[in-house]
Design brief:
four-stranded antiparallel β-sheet; globular
Length: about 425
């Protein structure tokens, strides 16, 4: 009897191992972007297993596959790091910042760079397999951006921090671009299958479910596109802000569950749409606070975070009703939550990785990055809230850029955590990738 049980258990583990590897090899864990990881949770923080330093911000979210962690840096490189030891396997140099999160499939790492190229790199050697040239990268831009001066000047948005992270499905790789297109390429050769033109920059990441690709654009529309043909199935209009371009644009990537598509928007709403028709099920207002965070969906609950209000929310997935929220002292969260069992993990611009006990609905623990320890006090008020007046000198656009850099110096965690093998992997603007346990 013991022998039979042992064989059955071993067989189950062997079957489960590829599924777990696949879940950690793409942005948000799977093609539906559930943000849910099947691995032991870190209920109590014990130590930093290792940290790996780059020469730029680590905005890219890691992908973990076959004992290797893959991630990009604004130093222009994609890194492959041994998950156990934290030592470099290889690094691949591009022509500009890598703030796309890689997807790993069939021994290939797929990702984009601000040089306007999309890359396929062999995971064993770190050598280029192919690259595809888009129409070029750029950030979202507008006049009088966020109310800054001068009013008539067109300004790129410093808060457009990510590039689209690819999804690999059915022999093709899909991603959005600053040239306004959504692309489908042959995953083996890099040749173009199709492209779909939106009205502005596309830096959200595609989710795929039942042959349909779901993605938002800075043009204020959310799109459902047939993944095989590139034809539009439907689109949904979100809010606009023609004066200061603050309450407009979709940076959040969609999650699909139970026939509903969930995504955040800078118009300060989290939306739930019917997957088939695009009809609105509900829209949750955050009261003028952006939703850059991509939602996680698990067991009938949607989890996400907000910008200026610094709140972590749990909503009923069917009705949109608030189940609970937690206040993080008005520190912005662009990071997206990773859910493991009764725990959730999410980064904060305070330079922290925050852990939440979902069952108890309480804060469990918080980890401070090196940047937070070094520079956090300078930009933090006595009550724990951000001290923006220390970072931003005026409403002139140049001071907005300087202020943004000041706030990033606290080691902000805009990368989204990935959990694999009982270890949390997450990047920081202090240049480090951290392995926490």
């Amino acid at each position: 009897m013991r022998s039979t049980l042992g064989v059955a258990l071993l067989f189950a583990l062997l079957l489960d191992a590829p599924a777990q590897a696949a879940q950690t090899a793409t942005f948000r864990g799977d093609l539906q972007h559930s943000g849910v990881y099947q691995t032991p949770a870190v209920e109590r923080f014990s130590r930093v297993k290792w940290k790996f330093a780059t020469h730029g911000y680590v905005v890219s979210s890691p992908a973990v596959a076959d004992g290797v962690v893959y991630f990009g840096s604004t130093d222009g490189r994609l890194y492959a790091v041994d998950a156990a030891a934290g030592t470099q396997r290889w690094k691949f140099q591009t022509g500009s910042r890598v703030v796309s999160s890689p997807a790993i499939a069939d021994g290939v790492a797929y990702f984009g760079s601000y040089d306007g190229d999309f890359y396929a790199v062999d995971t064993a050697s770190g050598h280029l397999k192919w690259k595809f040239k888009t129409g070029g990268e750029r950030r979202f831009e507008g006049t009088h951006l966020h109310g800054t001066q001068p009013v008539m000047e067109t300004m790129p948005d410093p808060f457009d921090v990510y590039l689209s992270s690819p999804a690999v499905w059915n022999g093709s790789v899909y991603f959005g671009s600053g040239d306004g297109n959504v692309y489908s390429l042959n995953a083996s050769t890099g040749t173009l299958n199709w492209s779909y033109k939106t009205g502005d920059v596309v830096h959200a990441s595609p989710a795929i479910d039942d042959g349909t690709l779901f993605i938002g654009s800075w043009d204020s529309y959310f799109y459902a596109i047939d993944a095989a043909s590139g034809t539009l199935k439907w689109r949904f209009k979100t809010g606009v802000d023609p004066d200061i371009h603050n309450q407009v644009g979709i940076q959040s990537s969609a999650a699909v569950a139970g026939g509903i598509v969930y995504f955040g928007c800078r118009d300060s709403h989290l939306y739930a749409l019917d997957e088939r028709t695009g009809d609105k099920k509900w829209a949750f207002s955050t009261g003028q606070s952006w939703v850059i965070s991509s939602p996680a969906v698990d067991a009938g609950t949607v989890y996400f975070a907000t910008s200026d209000s610094g709140l972590f929310y749990a909503l009923d997935a069917v009705t949109g009703a608030t189940i609970f929220s937690l206040d993080y002292d008005h520190w912005v969260s662009f990071s997206s939550p990773a859910v493991v069992g009764q725990m959730a993990y999410i980064g904060s611009n305070a330079g922290t990785l925050n852990a939440i006990n979902l069952k108890a609905r309480t804060k469990a623990w918080s980890f401070k990055t090196d940047g937070s320890k070094q520079n956090g006090p300078k930009y933090t008020n006595a009550d724990g809230s951000p001290k923006y007046e220390a970072a931003y000198a005026s409403d002139y656009y140049d001071d907005l850029i300087i202020g943004y850099a000041n706030m990033m110096s606290v080691g902000a965690v805009v990368s989204s955590p990935v959990v694999s093998g009982g270890v949390i992997y997450v990047g920081s603007t202090d240049g480090n990738l951290y392995a926490l346990m």
